[in-house]
Amino acid sequence: MTLPINPVYFNITFFFSKIVNFFEDIWQFLSNPRIWTSVSNIISIIIIFFLIIIIYSLVRIFELQKDQKEEVKSKISEMMEKQSDKEENGNYRWHYILTLIEGTQESDWRVAILEADSLLEEVLKEKGFSGETLNELLNSARESGFRHIQDAWDAHIYRNEIAHKGVEAGITQVKGRSMIKKYQNFFEELGVI
Fold first, then answer.
1. Which residue from 104, 116, 123, 168 could staple onto 183, CB 3.0 to 4.6 Å apart?
2. DSSP string covering 10-78, please?
3. 96 neighbors 63 (Cβ within 8 angstroms)
4. What pLDDT, in 10s, does the model give residues 25-75?
5. Domain ranges of the chain
6. Whole-angstrom distance, CA of residue 72 vs CA of residue 63
7. What is the DSSP letter of 166?
8. This prediction's pTM
């Protein structure tokens, strides 16, 4: 038994006519002036909306930049004032002390330690610690919980040794530098240098 053969043909004319009809419908839709008026109105509204967002964003950016510039200027002026205060309040003495400790004479090293101790006493009095002697001032400062208060004590004890024993208390530049470093640690914590 054989099956009948029914060939199905592809009608190319029908296929192309459907394609042409599809593009004609699109053309009619796109060429309709009412459609374009509606589309242009919608696009105009969208453009206006985004322009408003852009303008608002630009205004906010400029405001923020202005605020940041003013904040940076105020911080810079504060830092410059603090720097000038440090220079006025004894920083020149600290540079003098550093110059002495780098000298070549033992007498310079002694004077450097004595000057640093004198500066320590003045600074503690200026900071409002109570006491008549440097020992009392350091005890008062100890109660404030400074991290480097022991460095100040060690340096002060060494200064007393130099002051009371005089030339008998030998001093080396290395030992002098280590004592000046102890003063420096405490001065930095106090914000003097």
1. 116
2. P-HHHHHHHHHHHHHHHHHHHH-HHHHHHHHHHHHHHHHHHHHHHHHHHHHHHHHHHHHHHHHHHHHHH
3. no
4. 888 887 888 887 888 889 999 999 999 999 999 999 999 999 999 998 888
5. 40-71, 81-190
6. 14
7. G
8. 0.54
